[in-house]
Amino acid sequence: MGKHLTLILGGARSGKSSYAEQLAAQRGQRIAYVATAQAWDDEMAHRIENHRRQRPATWETIEAPSQVGAAIAAAEASAGDWDVVLIDCLTLLASNVILALPEPVETPAAEAALRAEVDALLDAYQASKASWILVSNEVGLGIVPAYPLGRVYRDALGRANQQLAAVADEVLFMVAGLPMRVK
Questions:
Q1: How many CB atoms lie within 10 A of CB 89?
Q2: Using CA atoms, how far apart are residues 183 and 89, in angstroms rounded to an integer?
Q3: Is 141 helix (H, G, I), strand (E, B) or coil?
């Protein structure tokens, strides 16, 4: 297949992560799993631990809540060559980037900060020899968020998803555990 960039989108509990992990296992043996989650509460800590237990022990885990491109580049330089880099997920990365901004967060600032994060991510992809799989939520299909920060987040993540989809070789949309090919 050669080097390949895949973006997997979908709603919450649509099967994105499970499908991404299956794809990664099919596409290579040396896998780097990039986790963007942070354990802000007990529920999230439990979810993170469940994800850790489900991943094969042979996969290398890189925990990077932000500056993901730089973290991958540094790990790749010291760890050697991977077949696949799986980033799970852009949704939490966007949250981490936006929540680090000074309040009140405005849409232009959030979009610029997230665009810079995605630009750095794409620069790291270009320098990498591995195929990459990125997971992100499609947050634009539901109701309009009731709070300004929710609307800022939805808009910034939607633009970041568009930025990635434009350059991805393949875009999949997950519905009820089933992948639909978009690109």
A1: 21
A2: 20
A3: coil
Catalytic residue among 30, 51, 115, 159: 51
Q: Which amino acid is at 22?
A: Q
- Annotated catalytic, 4? no
Q: Is 48 helix (H, G, I), strand (E, B) or coil?
A: helix
Q: Where are the alpha helices (DSSP H) in 28-83?
A: 42-54, 68-79
pTM: 0.93
* Six-digit token string for 29: 């043996």
Low-confidence ranges of the chain (pLDDT < 50): none
- Of the candidates 34, 135, 17, the residue with the CA atom closest to the CA atom of residue 82: 34
pLDDT tens for residues 71-115? 999 999 887 789 999 999 999 999 999 999 999 999 999 999 999
Q: Residue 9: beta bridge partners?
A: 136, 173
For residue 79, give both structure tokens.
């760890």
CA distance 182 to 180: 6
